[in-house]
Amino acid sequence: MASRMTTTNMITANNAVGDYFMVFDILHTPPINPLVPGSGTGVTQDMKNYGMTIAAMSQYAQSIGMPVSSGIITAMMDDASDGIMDGMMGGNPISMAGMGGMGGGMMSSMTSTAGTVGLANAMTTFMTSTVNKSGLDALAMETLISKLTYSGGTIQ
């Protein structure tokens, strides 16, 4: 946001990011832990979306060779900061150097589709992996996967 950190700006940003990932209230909605058997049963779609978004970020980090998935979360936060998930922060490419990507730094910049198609593909991959114990399949996440794939990255 163009101005300083205010309560209004924080509420606006939280709502925009929540909308992008289809979680109504990202501050008060607990994400499921898809590593726990049956965690996707008897919970809201928001909880599923939140947990699977985190899992997708971790899966994406693994797919590009990041040894610690928190690096991709930092990069995604930077990407979202200008209102569009396009691998850029204010018109500048997001550097992945030092985040351990692609075997320790071979990847210099975040891809333009990391926060859109990249996350959607990572979510689909996670949904079909043996690590996913939630009881959910890709069909249960189809709406979010489709939104990420076709959103164009705009966070409103």
Summarize the helices and strands and which ones pair or pack:
Elements: H1 7-20, H2 45-63, H3 70-80, E1 88-89, E2 92-93, H4 101-105, H5 114-127, H6 142-150
Antiparallel strand pairs: 1-2
Helix pairs in contact: 2-3, 2-5, 5-6
Structural features, described:
- The protein is an all-alpha fold.
- It has a domain at 44-150.
- It is built from 6 helices and 2 strands, in the order αααββααα.
- The protein has a two-stranded antiparallel ribbon.
- A hairpin with a 2-residue loop joins strand 1 (88-89) and strand 2 (92-93).
- Helix 2 packs across helix 5 (114-127) and helix 5 packs antiparallel against helix 6.
- The longest helix has 19 residues, at 45-63.
Low-pLDDT runs: 101-106
Regarding quaternary structure, what we see is: single chain
Number of strands: 2
Helix-strand string: HHHEEHHH
Helical proportion, percent range: 40-55%
Enumerate the strands of the largest sheet in spatial order, edge to edge or round the barrel.
1-2
Sheet of most strands: 2 strands, antiparallel
